[in-house]
Design goal:
The protein is α/β, with parallel strands linked by helices and 384 residues long. It has two domains: 4-11 and 257-383, Aspartate Aminotransferase, domain 1 (Alpha-Beta Complex), CATH 3.90.1150.10; 16-253, Aspartate Aminotransferase, domain 2 (3-Layer(aba) Sandwich). The chain is built from twelve helices and twelve strands. Strand 3 (92-96), helix 4 and strand 4 form a beta-alpha-beta unit. The two termini are 31 Å apart.
Length: 384
């Protein structure tokens, strides 16, 4: 059975070009970047080249890029680092109900440490209302964190407008761009953010590496202390091979983004059309216009979601019900609940995320297998 991978929001395969770039730093070029000899200089040059590549893909300066172990660490460094650096000025933080757990759980922790956190609702498309953001700002507000694109339903948030409102009040803005980077244009100048998180394994790079963009002059405290690596903001010997892989993956993003976005958007629309033709009662979740091009989240009423996903997996098709970090949870997705979905729609979610290797034939196979599985489940229900 040929396996079909349609879960690129969870992780992506490492691109061959990325593997080739990393390989020397897993074998012969093994030096410590902090060493002064030629082996160390070789590794340092590789790290700084990757920093330039990541910066160029964001329209940032290399000095504004801090390498981390992934998107979660980048989120935590942004939130805790900015919160504690600005604590003398205030203690109020604003976020939304649909953020990744890395943001929500960190905000909950900060709430127990003397900070005051406001969690804003979203509308039925999963989008935060700009007027709610403006109304929530106080004279003690120091930080707003709103994700660029939602990892479950793909809704893109109005980050630039949020930044304009926040900066009028002297408030910092962080955005988790882990899902948007590599799928839609992400320019720190266009967005206007002070802090931005990204991850390597979402853009055909390796797992275990990410980056935080820190606009020049933005106050930030390190999470922990040790060596002076990454300007003291992320001490510890650098993951040279991983950083090299992230740099090469970011360079590929810059090269391929326009064409990939066009192809993914066309495939997504084709998938929607085929689903409606086979399953007229399907419900599409999230903003269907302002969304990630390769992500489609939908609900099929009257079908048990986990059972359906197992049936698809049995046919060699990998999709998910939502975020990979919440797989295995039996309660409905907090993101879908925040959108106000009726219970029947929260029990049967399917998230399909297309990638570079996805073809029209793959979409057609998925829809045919899904249709058969739904018919069997509904037949079992009717017969029982």
């Amino acid at each position: 059975m040929e396996r079909l991978y349609l879960d690129h929001a969870a992780t992506t395969p490492v691109a061959p070009e990325v593997v080739a770039a990393m390989l020397p730093y897993l074998t012969s070029a093994f030096g410590n970047p902090s060493s002064a000899h030629s082996f160390g200089r070789e590794a340092r040059e590789a790290v700084e080249r990757a920093r330039r590549q990541v910066a160029a893909s964001l329209g940032a300066e290399p000095a504004e890029i801090v390498f981390t172990s992934g998107g979660t660490e980048a989120d935590v460094l942004a939130l805790r680092g900015a919160a504690y650096a600005c604590r003398r000025r205030g203690n109020h933080i604003i976020t939304t109900a649909v953020e990744h757990h890395a943001v929500l759980d960190t905000c909950l922790a900060l709430d127990t440490e003397g900070f005051d956190v406001t969690v804003l609702p979203v509308d039925e498309r999963g989008k935060v209302r700009l007027e709610d953001v403006a109304a929530a700002i106080r004279n003690t507000t120091i930080l707003i964190s709103v994700m660029h694109a939602n990892n479950e339903v793909g809704t893109v948030q109005p980050i630039r407008a949020i930044c304009e409102v926040a900066h009028r009040h002297g408030v910092l803005v962080h955005t988790d761009a882990v899902q948007s980077f590599g799928k839609i244009p992400v320019s720190v100048a266009d967005l206007g953010v002070d802090l931005l998180s990204l991850s390597g394994h979402k853009i055909y790079g390796p797992k275990g590496v990410g980056a935080l963009y820190v606009r020049a002059g933005t106050p930030l405290e390190p999470l922990f202390h040790g060596g002076g690596q990454e300007r003291g903001l992320r001490p510890g010997t650098e993951n040279v091979a991983g950083i090299v892989g992230l740099g090469r993956a970011a360079a590929l993003v810059k090269e391929k983004l326009a064409e990939e976005t066009r192809c993914l958007r066309a495939l997504r629309e084709y998938l929607k059309k085929e689903l409606v033709a086979r399953l007229p009662d399907v419900r599409f979740n999230g903003d269907q216009e302002d969304c990630l091009p390769g992500l489609l989240h939908f609900s099929i009423p009257g079908v048990d979601g986990p059972t359906l996903l197992k049936m698809l997996d049995g046919e060699g098709i990998a999709v998910s019900g939502g975020a990979a970090c919440t797989t295995g949870e039996t309660k409905p997705s907090y993101v879908l609940l925040a959108l106000g979905l009726a219970e029947d729609y929260t029990r049967c979610p399917v998230r399909v995320t297309l990638g570079r290797s996805t073809t029209v034939a793959a979409v057609e196979r998925f829809v045919a297998v899904l249709d058969g599985a739904v018919r069997r489940l509904r037949g079992e229900k009717q017969g029982g």
